[in-house]
From TrEMBL:
<keyword id="KW-0408">Iron</keyword>
<comment type="function">
    <text>Involved in the biosynthesis of 5-hydroxyectoine, called compatible solute, which helps organisms to survive extreme osmotic stress by acting as a highly soluble organic osmolyte. Catalyzes the 2-oxoglutarate-dependent selective hydroxylation of L-ectoine to yield (4S,5S)-5-hydroxyectoine.</text>
</comment>
<protein>
    <recommendedName>
        <fullName>Ectoine hydroxylase</fullName>
        <ecNumber>1.14.11.55</ecNumber>
    </recommendedName>
</protein>
<keyword id="KW-0223">Dioxygenase</keyword>
<keyword id="KW-0560">Oxidoreductase</keyword>
<comment type="similarity">
    <text>Belongs to the PhyH family. EctD subfamily.</text>
</comment>
<dbReference type="InterPro" id="IPR008775">
    <property type="entry name" value="Phytyl_CoA_dOase-like"/>
</dbReference>
<keyword id="KW-0479">Metal-binding</keyword>
<comment type="subunit">
    <text>Homodimer.</text>
</comment>
<dbReference type="GO" id="GO:0016491">
    <property type="term" value="F:oxidoreductase activity"/>
</dbReference>
<dbReference type="Pfam" id="PF05721">
    <property type="entry name" value="PhyH"/>
</dbReference>
<dbReference type="InterPro" id="IPR012774">
    <property type="entry name" value="EctD"/>
</dbReference>
Amino acid sequence: MPLAVDDYVTRVSGAPVIVDRPDPVVWSDLDDPEVRDFAERGYIQRDRALDDDRIDACLEELRRIGEDPAMADDPRIIRESGSEAVRSIFDVHLLSDVVWEAVERSGALDLAREILGSEVYVHQSRLNYKPGFAGGAFYWHSDFETWHAEDGMPRPRACSASIALTPNRTYNGPLMIMPGTQKYFVQCAGETPEDYYKESLVTTAPKVGVPSEEHITELYRSHGLDVLTGPAGSMTMFDCNALHASGGNITPMPRANVFIVFNSVENALTEPYAGTPRRPDFLARRH
């Protein structure tokens, strides 16, 4: 059952508001300067989390999965709207031992444990792929808002590692984040349709689960915007509640990132707070 009192009310029928986050960003002590930066900015970056051989092996695995005829109709492969271009491949940590070994080697697990102050499990994993000329945008959002409303994640005690398999340049659709916004919870308006994930995973202009333009503008004016670039093999760890987005890719340079969400074992999912049925396991694993 959901918490008796929901500290993160969202998908409201009236005007949404911005509230202070009642929970910490880092759930352990702040002795580590890198973790202090995470608490303040909502993200940290590391170079050389993966070497070239592991990057090449992951890219080959992801090409294999995307081109496997047996996976053509698999719901875990999301294609760009109106195109056969792959947008996301979910469950990559289960579909490929090579990818999971790379995640383990990257240091993401230990960093997630330190930030969340507990043992962790993989709530969700995916490849986010933006092919040249065809990569669509991901609109401004807080991951936690979706995971709370649609998956029943009680508190923002989760973080995400984005590991670059190709260079992330300013011009090929890199992650953009508003530093410091992890300290607030931005309500969203609108009722959640059943099976909304089927639309939200492919659209570049979602109607539900996104902040208002007024709130996005307000937070941009007070917090600014960081564009997170880096070479292949670099890693960004960011808080589940930080507002982030990425633009489309109209350049010839593809962008591919492995994206792993770590949730605290002490933050087990309940029923969705939006009152909708549970989403598929590949979007929200419960152990």
